[in-house]
Specification:
By secondary structure, the protein is α/β, with parallel strands linked by helices. The chain has a single domain (4-218), classed as P-loop containing nucleotide triphosphate hydrolases (Rossmann fold, 3-Layer(aba) Sandwich), CATH 3.40.50.300. It contains 9 helices and 8 strands. The strands form 2 sheets. It has a 5-stranded parallel beta sheet, sandwiched between helices. A 3-stranded antiparallel beta sheet has the order 3-4-5, covered by helices on one side. α1 (16-27) crosses α9, α2 packs across α5 and α7 (145-158) crosses α8. The mean pLDDT is 92.
Length: 220
């Protein structure tokens, strides 16, 4: 078996990255964190005061950004930005940046190129609908906004980042709205995706559920 694609789509904080990393390790798949790619572009836009309405500025930004992912570390123009891209300030602007057509075109091409000929698991918003509509296994992972806010708050506290529940919840609801209503590749469930609600499920239970679909497909 050469190329085998598993996609996990869903809203912010539903557990996509955590689950995808575990599945990747279990099946020895390549894991591609597409959300981190958008976060790197968002960080560059923030640091360089890019006007998101300025098409020329956006083109120049994309021409001047080189993204690398090495052993789960994220490099923007040669600098390790793994911690910076997970801060609330980046979370606040990543959805508007990801809604820009030029940004999506560049990153979708990059995601397809990286995954070519490999066994890959990718997570994001439009992986099963736009990036890999013919993926072998598609998962749509959801959770309540309140549960996702609690998870995100816990992540911030573990990293020593100050944040409060109400602000995090408001940010998640705003991201949900932007992601699901944007013109370019909105967040939606692919018709052939398996929906899993992780609100009251453990990580192990979600992994087990997804593993069933993968095993069935590969004939394990």
């Amino acid at each position: 078996m050469e190329e085998f694609i598993v996609t996990i789509d869903g809203p912010a904080g539903s557990g996509k990255s955590t689950i995808a990393k575990i599945i990747a390790k279990k099946y020895k798949f390549t894991y591609l964190d597409t959300g981190a790619m958008y976060r790197m572009i968002a960080l560059y836009a923030l640091e360089n005061n890019i006007d998101l309405e300025d098409k020329i500025a956006i083109k120049n930004m994309l021409d001047n950004t080189k993204l690398d992912i090495v052993e789960n570390k994220f490099f923007l123009n040669g600098k390790d930005v793994s911690e910076e891209i997970r801060t609330p300030k980046v979370s606040a602007v990543v959805s508007p940046v990801a809604a820009i057509k030029e940004v999506r075109v560049k990153l979708v091409d990059l995601q397809r190129e990286i995954s070519k000929g490999k066994k890959t698991i990718l997570d994001g918003r439009d992986i099963g609908t736009v990036v890999f509509p013919n993926a072998d296994v598609k998962i749509y992972l959801v959770a309540s906004p309140e549960e996702r806010a609690n998870r995100r708050l816990k992540e911030y506290k573990e990293k020593g980042v100050e944040a409060d529940y109400e602000s995090v919840l408001a940010s998640i609801k705003e991201r949900d709205f932007i992601d699901s209503t944007r013109e370019e590749s909105p967040l939606m469930k692919a018709e052939d995706a398996h929906e899993i609600d992780s609100s009251i499920m453990s990580i192990e239970e979600v992994v087990e559920e997804i593993s069933k679909y993968i095993d069935k497909k590969i004939g394990a």
